[in-house]
Amino acid sequence: MPEAAGKRKAENEVNGEQPSKKGSAFNEFTGVFDGLVQDILGLLPKELPDESLAYIKKMCHYTCYGGKMTRGITVGATYADVARSRGEEPSEQAMFVAKVIGWCIEWLQACFLVLDDIMDESHTRRGQPCWYKLPEVKKMAINDGLILESCIFLLLKKHVKPYNVELYHNCVELFHEVSFQTELGQLLDMTTESPEGKLDFSRFTLERYKLIVKYKTAFYSFYLPVAAGLYLAGLTGEKDLELTKEITIAMGEYFQIQDDFLDCYGDPETIGKAGTDFWSSCQIGTDIQDKKCGWLCVQALMKCNEEQVEGIPKSVFESLLAKIYKRSK
């Protein structure tokens, strides 16, 4: 079991946040991060050169550590709530396992974001250049995303399997299931445009939007951490999981609608999408630029007549540069 790392060194900080400024749940969760990274490095083949180990260590710190980490923290919170509802105190060992599973979710999140940024040609992530934008990374980020995903199963095998074999198998199945669902969501998102890359607003429907949100966001961001916490608490019944899925998908939809709004109207410093070059510093998010099937676009289309819809590509997307330039003045 890795020991709490204490205050993280400045060179390993991401996004300039000090854990001491957060609540105790955040501190306890982040306290095991460095130990888990060391676990991963220790499980790598011994013949790997030092530069490979250093690269993977940097990648884990750069891509996994940052943001509010609510996905990871939710695993322990779910387990603890269930335990206390039974009149039990959460055990220290189970809470550590919850942190491990929680960090596995953060590793999965990092995998998705690294690959998503490449596909979307994004510039920044959490207030810093996207991983693939670093000159020493570039296209290697594709393979890095796969390595990040593999780290999940190294950690589950090392820490969860010795604790409870049934829990380990449930978690492995859960991560595989949710990963595939999220990949389907990415497919739905990326194929909103026609194969020729032209805008096809017949695909920008509320039904498709909800489907994208359900598969791309809700399953891994909301269902996965709660379901993992229930598994840890011993709740594996189909009825419990189906009800959990229904509630968390609704929560995911609410979250994504809010995120779409903030992508356009949010404060860049608050939401971590401030840019470092002219293009990205003039905008907040890139949903409109990327022609995404977002909440704002879907709602606008629902209020448009056919003539107005035909005018949208020119009036919105082709004039985007001018609007961004005006915002930057």
Automatic annotation (TrEMBL):
Amino acid composition bias (Basic and acidic residues), ranges on this chain: 1-12
Q: Does the keyword Magnesium apply?
A: yes
Needed cofactors, names only, are: Mg(2+)
Q: Which domain of life is it from?
A: Eukaryota
Which cellular component appears as one GO term in the record? cytoplasm
Protein name as catalogued: Farnesyl pyrophosphate synthase
Instruction: Cite the source lineage.
Output: Eukaryota, Cryptophyceae, Pyrenomonadales, Geminigeraceae, Guillardia
Q: Which residues form a coiled coil?
A: none
GO MF annotation terms: (2E,6E)-farnesyl diphosphate synthase activity; dimethylallyltranstransferase activity; metal ion binding
Q: Which GO terms describe its biological process?
A: farnesyl diphosphate biosynthetic process
Q: Which SUPFAM superfamilies did the record assign?
A: Terpenoid synthases
PROSITE patterns linked: POLYPRENYL_SYNTHASE_1, POLYPRENYL_SYNTHASE_2
> What are the alphabetically sorted keywords of the record?
Magnesium, Metal-binding, Transferase
